[in-house]
Hints:
Layout: H1 25-55, E1 60-63, E2 68-71, E3 87-88, E4 93-99, E5 102-107, E6 112-117, E7 124-125, E8 130-136
Antiparallel strand pairs: 1-8, 2-4, 2-7, 3-6, 4-5, 6-8
Amino acid sequence: MKKPQGEVVSQPVQVQQPVQAPPKTEPKQEAVEQAPKQEAKEDTAEKEAPKAQGNADYDAEVKSPMVGTFYASPSPEEDVYVKVGDTVKEDSVVCIVEAMKLFNEIEAEVSGEIVEILVKDGELVEYGQPLFRVKSK
């Protein structure tokens, strides 16, 4: 007895291989490698700070309340808000910090004389970064 020979139809089989996550030790190594760089920057800033402190007699700092771009004047055509030697009051606007297209007027929050301007116009500033040094009256 002969068996009828039929046609065998098959489709290619796709084998899925499991996705492997990268080893968890690599991010830790990157973080460790980056940390000394940040510490080095902090050390440099600390070394530079005493030099700057020796240059100006001050007892207060106006700090940035947000991350953004520092502007010393309301527009490029206008004069700066304050210069070294200017007297400011607590509600005096000393600069603008732009964050996400919003221009935020920064007030001195201390009365006194501006003795040092620590940032340049158009410079990126961080939260809590000192912008001005003031000798209070």
